[in-house]
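Supplementary Methods, section 5.1.

A reviewer requested that the exact input to the structure prediction be made available. We therefore reproduce it here, unchanged from the version used in the analyses.
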Amino acid sequence: MAPFIVLATLFALLSILGHFQIPVAFGWWTSLRLALAGMFLLTASAHWGKRRPDLIRMVPTSFPRPDILITVTGVLEVLGAIGLMLPKVAAYAALGLAFMLVAVFPANIRAARERLTIASRPVPTLVPRTLLQIVFLAATIAVFVAGK
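The structure derived from this sequence is encoded token-by-token as follows.
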């Protein structure tokens, strides 16, 4: 839920700032891509530190070396967030992040079905988790389409 709160809060705040031209005028596309960048930096931070073992447990057992997969997806989230902050490559970064969201969804399914925890907190059940993924996917696709 924290990533959604970060995305929504940053989008609202940046939209207000852009509307009032602080520091300059910018529209929804800039607000959304920067909000997504903030969200992906937050989610990437979980790939190292105390939450890392929880993420490793989420990876379906059919995938080899879940520790490496968690590192790779964390690096991709950081690189994607950086790309979202650069207008010339933001659309491509958003497309790559959209593909990554689809690729990691099996881990979200496993976490929900097995009622795993992240930082000792239960993950959302499958329906809310799926709805959140759809929101994140729609946001990345919107940035891609508008940026082309």
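The mean pLDDT is 96. These observations are discussed further in the main text.
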